[in-house]
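Quick start: read one record
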Amino acid sequence: MLYWIFKAIFLIILKVFFRLKVEGKENLPKKSNFIVVANHASYLDGLVIMATMPKKISCIAFRGFYKIAWLRWFFKSVEALPSGRSSDKAISLLMQNKNVGLFPEGRLSKDGTLSEFRRGVALLAVKTGRPIVPCAILGTYEALPRRAKLPKFVPITLKIGKPLYLLKEFGDLIDDISLQEGIFKIRKAVKELIDAEG
């Protein structure tokens, strides 16, 4: 219940103050749950994903934030998962037909550019067979970069790409080469959405 209340609040704030726009909503899978993957340039990114996705998304959040009491309460209220040991929980949620969101760069970008992706997102997709929805969040770095104390009210856009599938043949082992290929494919899809700005 709290998830949907926070979602509505964040959607209003983002639309009023940041003129939030969403492109590509028709690309979201209609017959399957999915894994949302996006670039990460601001603390606003998770709120953008939460506010815009029509279905509940359990995002993976930096474990260190759980040491702060009010943030821990908030993350638990919106059913976020702490990073580090969340893979089993994320797999469990996906197998229950729930949705998971993550930022595979693993940390905020220092300059707003796209960093390398970690292998966890590819592993999650291969193990569960669920589609990955690549997303580009534009404007959040300008609105609230990592060291800013107050936000600037600039436009924010979420671009949703077509789903990707990383499937393995029955009995195939999950090896580092196939995971690396999967990571490259996912990152390429996100980067193309970012570069297509305007």
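The chain has a mean pLDDT of 91.
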